[in-house]
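Problem: given the chain below (275 residues), write out its structure.
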Amino acid sequence: MTDIAPSPSQPARQLTLTATAGIALVTFVIGLLIAGAIFWRMTPAQPTSQPETVVPATKVIVAPPVASDPASLSARQQMLAAELSALEQRTAAVTGEAANSYGNATRAEGMMIAFAARRAIDRGSSLGYIEQQLRDRFGTTRPNEVAAIIDAGRHPITVEDLRLGLDQIGSQLALGPAGDGWGGSFVRMLGSLVVIHPRNAPSPVPGERLARIRRFLAQGQVEAAVEEVKRLPGAAQSKAWLDGAQRYIATRQALDTLEAAALQGNAAAPAAVRG
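Solution.
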């Protein structure tokens, strides 16, 4: 039996298989490493336990582009001019309303002061604090009227005062001056018994004149009463009564003037408002 010796090509074949297996194994390991690295890079990082800082959003205002052509600029200028004109008109309207409100308030306050002064004068009482109010409101524009009203408040004369004064001098007014003696008075009395006058004219008889004067005073018609007193025989002896009646009339005229000024808005504002 003859031994068959191995062929010389077997060791080479075994070496080749071993190298091939080693190369495949190394290649497999390298592939695993590359795949692991790629997987690690692609995996997102886990958030840490620290709270996130929220950055507030910033509002960005983008200005519209400014037109540069002349037509657009002219149109924009006209639009701005129209808006400015409308704003000026609204401002003027508000200013006018404020001025009207202030004027109405000043007018109302002036009228209240004038009416309060008239009530005090009619009652024959002192003006008190109204004196200073009259000076503040009307002292600059109506100084004479203010002075007359203040004087009347300090020295009051009422219709009742005039009526009582007329009762005291009534006989002297009807009979005339006492210097003529009883004879002159008797002649004037006889002359007044028969008086011829037009049908529609008031009687000139002294007694009837005195009755008319009392009616005039009761109705507040002091001017008419004064005219009748001046026609009586003893009018020369009624100077004091006539002076008082004239002061009464002048005071009422001054009050009428102040009321008209207040109604027209000519009363001044108080010092606190003016300052």
